[in-house]
Amino acid sequence: MAENEILVVEGLARHFAPHVSAIDRLFGTKPTENRAVDGVDLVLHKGETLGLVGESGCGKSTLARTVVGLHRPTAGVIRYGGEVLPARRTRAQKRAIQMVFQDPYSSLNPRMTVGQMLSELLKFHQLVPRNKVRERSRELMHLVGLPERALGQRPRQFSGGQRQRVGIARALALEPTVLLADEPVSALDVSVQATIINLFADLKETLDLSVIFVSHNMAVVRQICDRTAVMYRGRIVETGSTDTLFDDPVHPYTRLLTGSVPRLVGAEGPQQVEVAPADDRDAVRQEVARAAAPCRFADRCPSVVAECADEPPLLPDPRDPTRLAACVHVPRRAEVARADADPRSRP
Asked: pTM of the predicted model, to two decimals?
């Protein structure tokens, strides 16, 4: 584990046992196991904001909940500060990795005031002396941009944006070094989203946080994330610097995601995927579908080839070794790079 790596996920999996109904038992049907997270490798560097993107149902939130400790992993390890986190984490390990949830109202106790919630956390974890709890609570309110009187109010008395600020304050009360934000702005009005995004950016600099920002909003991810990881069907299919990944995506699924981001008329987007003739694609897809472990995107990929019958690992991009992509077409970029460098190959 490198010195600047604060959180490392290796081969992480989280599978859910299927629900077996009376009809399934009657006919002997075996429902398919839900592999929400299925072998994820991920690295978070100190002081970095890592974006985790993908369509709904790809396993982003399950991955975040597993990393924070709300789900026990089926397989794989999570390393924090070089140490493997056990299934039963210590109190200090729980404090180090905190989460901001998508729906702030459902994650807050409606019967307690904000002051009671923060006081309970601070006293239980013994983070400050009892006579300093009120003072620390006021500091947390100031940190997230809320007035002191908010301590005496309950969640129903706040707007959506204010409730999210309370959720952030509750996570920060435990003084974490890693913060997981699970779709923190998707439930908010567009006019409020910008203020919460700016708050995350300010807190990251002020408190020296490392952040994993889970979102399906590609425009938001491009605005605040240093690196981005793209997730599809429980696996990471591409990682790299955010600017590089948006300007020159390698994996066909990443191209599909970045192509969905609205652009001004005339603005250049990523290069299009090389598309094979429809008849050829259908024949190849049928062949790939019969394989034991085919590429997960093969049934939707416009450039599917016979090699997609074997699910590829994350491969380094010859043009940018810091970027990894799980696609058989990645090594071929080396040929393109050599052709671009050879003046004889130019028309």
From this structure: 0.87
